[in-house]
Design goal:
Layout: H1 2-27, H2 35-39, H3 53-67, H4 72-83, H5 95-115, H6 122-127, H7 134-166, H8 174-194, H9 201-205, H10 207-223, H11 225-284, H12 287-300
Helix pairs in contact: 1-3, 1-4, 5-7, 7-8, 7-10, 8-10, 8-11, 10-11, 11-12
Length: 301
């Protein structure tokens, strides 16, 4: 069992080395001189015939330094995905991109189809969730959700594509993309339904302009769920300030007065101590020098 584990680790490192060599060759970058050892390596049946474990580790380290900031894991993943023969590869180099592309196409189709319905119009959008009902309300909510989904997909595709181009895409973070997608749906829907007053007064006077603006707000919420979080957080802070702000100010004022009184008492005690010290020094002579020294000490304190 231990021998098989070592062989699996060895083959894993060799596969990453081979992927990094192809990456360097494709980018036209210089390769370490010990790459020739890998070229003579026989990988048939998963057995290493010429390279020692130490040599494999050194070669892997050299190649990793050469491909930086790209990561060996990402390069190896892209290499394996490129070997697969599937029509779905047209939608992206890795599984996450393909799934996001499919979600984007479905969201776009839903946005267009629902938008064609006569129930989705400027009047129904202006009504809001409390003034509308039934099938018309459902279609409008689906319309807003599809707009939010388009914004969320756009943001996730843009971010994932950047990591793939840089060669440091890590599949272990795939779940975070879908979490952001769901948060984008919630944020886009809430912004479109609960915050219609975010539209400017000028667009409120023109219902046709507002009809296109509210879906845009939903798409904006889907693109950046953190925007909705900041709005809600600001509202919580505002309400908290209104409810407890005055009380806090009064308490802070009382605390400040108490501190001032305590400091005044301390200052008076210091002055009394200095005067008592001056009195004792007058008895000893050199009155002028003692008084000047005492005044200096009081001023410095």
């Amino acid at each position: 069992m231990e021998t098989n584990n070592f062989e699996n680790i060895e083959n894993f490192l060799l596969e990453e080395c081979a992927a990094m060599v192809k990456y360097l060759a494709g980018e036209g970058l210089l390769m370490p001189s010990d790459v020739t050892k890998l070229m003579n390596q026989n990988l048939e049946n998963g057995k290493s015939l010429k390279l020692e474990n130490k040599e494999i580790l050194e070669l892997h380290n050299h190649l990793s330094a050469k491909v930086y900031p790209a990561q060996p894991k990402a390069i190896s993943l892209l290499y394996r995905e490129a070997q697969k023969k599937s029509l779905f590869r047209l939608f992206g180099p890795v599984g996450l991109i393909r799934r996001l592309m499919l979600t984007t196409i479905l969201s776009l189709a839903c946005f267009i189809i629902v938008g064609l319905s006569p129930s989705v119009n400027s009047d129904s959008v202006l009504k809001g969730i409390l003034d509308d009902h039934g099938w018309e309300l459902l279609l409008n909510i689906i319309f807003f959700l599809s707009a939010a989904a388009l914004g969320a997909c756009f943001s996730n595709l843009f971010q994932a594509n950047k990591y793939i181009i840089q060669g440091n895409y890590d599949p272990k973070y795939e779940s975070s993309y879908w979490i952001r997608f769901v948060l984008g749906l919630i944020a886009g829907l809430m912004l479109a339904i609960l915050f219609p007053d975010l539209v400017t007064l000028e667009t409120q006077q023109n219902s046709d302009i507002r009809f296109f603006t509210i879906p845009l707000i939903a798409m904006l919420g889907g693109f950046s769920a953190s925007l909705f979080y900041r709005i809600m957080n600001r509202m919580v802070v505002t309400v908290e300030t209104l409810l407890v702000g005055q009380t806090s100010k009064e308490e802070d004022g009382k605390t400040s007065e108490i501190k001032k009184k305590e400091q005044s008492v301390i200052d008076k005690k210091q002055i009394v101590e200095e005067l008592l010290s001056l009195k004792s020094q007058v008895k000893e002579g050199d009155v002028d020098g003692k008084i000047s020294k005492t005044i200096d000490n009081i001023l410095m304190n």
